[in-house]
User: Fold these one by one.
Assistant:
Number 1:
Amino acid sequence: MNRRSVLAQMVASGVSVTAFGPTAFAGHAKAFTGPTAQTVLGPVEVSRLGFTLPHEHIADGPSFLGKWPKAWGGTAGFTKRAVEKLNLVRASGINTIVDLTTYDVGRDIRFLKEVSQQSGLNMIASTGQRFFPPQYPNVSMPARTIAGLAEFFIREIEAGVDDTGIKAGVIKIGIVGKKPSALEEIGLRAGIRASKATGVPLRIHTHAIDRAAENQTPILADEGMDPARVSFDHSDDSGEMDYFLPLVERGYFVGMDHVHRGLTPDAMPSFERRIKCIKMIIDAGFADKIFLSQDLEFGGSLLPEAVQDFRSKLDPPDGMLFTTRTLIPGLMEIGVSARDIHLMTVENPRSFFGMADQPQ
Ligand SMILES: [Zn+2]
């Protein structure tokens, strides 16, 4: 057995990811000697983030509880089930989960903090806007101006979310279609300004199949945004190298977090095409511009299969472990090195989520 297949086996068994990076743990360090990322438990040195999933959804878990209260026997039962699952995630070698659930899609910040504390996983919460205007019931739009919305995002980063003092450490902006609507453009510009004001990075939900990032880069450039602080998420929904390469060449990140969707019969692009594109971007010299994740709706994944809805069925069959169990072994099988896996899963998050201005 050669070195690669040994590593692949170790990854598949969930053992080796800890060997890829430092052992990280959640907690509020007292003195910082390096850059920090803002987690729901306070700032953590980026050297302690370890293996990081940069685009997931944990914080809307209680909204699934609200829809299916009998499935778990109430909040305590739901939290217990969530922590049991997250303990398995942590045991597999994953250290940090970035939660991109914004206020308008049911973010419950207290739940996120609770499961972070109980599981020992670092969690980074997001501010920002998924839908514009919000489509979630009982939520009103905080502002319709760039300045007003930026102020709201900055408050969630600097003062905290929902009067809890729990601070967001990333900004997520949703651009639903090929081109941003007028309101989505306001959201994007507000996200950029909040990022520049706070040092917190920006992740954008993009409709990559329509090459949506190409309609967003002019706005980012107009606002003077540093491409190294931006990730275009769901990028693997495009299978076109002439879409990816100009983005990474300019310094933007591409989030490859829908790879599991390629496993669905007749999916375009297929799983094979998606991992081949990742390999080709790496071979072009841009492993330092790729993120791997799985955009999992965690609460939905806890539901009994009989009541799972469309969105839950889109999620990977091995849930939070898809990246370590299926995606990484798949990439190594086609020749991606352990070195590049480490870069994409440990080093890129370490540089991206470190805040430009250090909170003390
Ligand atoms: Zn998402």
Number 2:
Amino acid sequence: MLYEGARLISGDASAPIDRSAFLVEDGRFTRVGRQGDLQPPVGTARVDLTGKTVMPALIDAHSHIGYMKGLTSGPRNYTRENILDHMHRFAYFGVAVSQAMGSDFGELPFQLREELRAGTDPDAARFLTAGRGLAPLEEISPTNMRHAAYVVTTVEGARADVQELAQRGVPLIKMWVDTRGGTVKTLTPDLYGAILDEAHKHRMRVAVHATGLADAKQLLRAGIDVFGHMISDVDDELVELFKQHPNTSILLALSAPRRVVSAPWINPPHPLIVETISPAQIKRLQDRLAGQSAAEAAQARQAWDRLARGVRILSAAGVKIGVGTDGGGQTGDQFVGWTMHAELENMVVAGMTPAQVLVAATRNSAEILGLDDLGLVAPSRSADFVVLDANPLDDITNTRRIARVFLRGREVDRGKLRAGWASGATSN
Ligand SMILES: [Zn+2]
């Protein structure tokens, strides 16, 4: 199939091709170029995308899948049906793959990882799992996302846990190193050092939940691969450490800190939210935001300004930034799928350009997750792409103007998914 006429954003930071043509064969891009230059084999069917913009399908490198369902959230919702519903939501929003960060448990995530990788459900995004995360005892409670985490108390135990994850074929694992404002006794450098060492021996990479500046510096020195959140403060020494560790990347996860400062998409709710989220859930978020005190709002604004300043510094320093939404977490306000588009806007509001943000959400996030099959519209890559009605380089919120989504060369049946949610067959 030849798709021609669209403005093409390939994901590799090059200038867009104004009138492009690309050929998809057996679920892959095989040729990419300018309309007219690219001569397809005789008999190739053509799709006219004149006036549209095409970009690679988006990649969410940090989420928590299977917990949210309607107004509830927790391990009891973690079923095959609910995980599949979430993967349908990602596909609906143009997301090709989402990486669950340490909140999975049991056999289910590994089964679904294989099924969805094979493309058995053409309307579902791929599901990547970090398996069970690694956490200190005080981070774990029966109802939170870390209920099934490995409890790390000794170096030997930490190494054994990592070995178990290695046997499950998990390329990226997750650990928590956060004192939560001094309330939690977190992992000490000898414990997370053992996790890093054992993981690297098995050629696995390690993502960390860490937001404190001092912890972040120690983790960089210890060889951390991925930060799952923006660091709460940034100074020259941190920037220098990032420069010394050019393979260390950071996902910003700005949705939670930004939402409490400004969420213009909920009042009134964006049409994509109305199509996918129940009125009760929308109202709950509207009420929560309206219920903030002036003091809380001022504090949130301060925290956001500090984060945004840090984002600008890290971006200017050339640190590799990917996109992680942290969506699907416990508060229930992180609407699965929508979070991606809110996050792209958050990154621009923080000071990145739309072009930088689109590269972060495609090529960079693919590299961070080790996916050499995704993230670009380029020959030999899987044909995962989004057709938009407007150009996101002009205005990042144009990523929401989704006309069509293709995963593995097949169009996602967004109408069918939408009808299912409207009928209440599944709710989220
Ligand atoms: Zn998270």
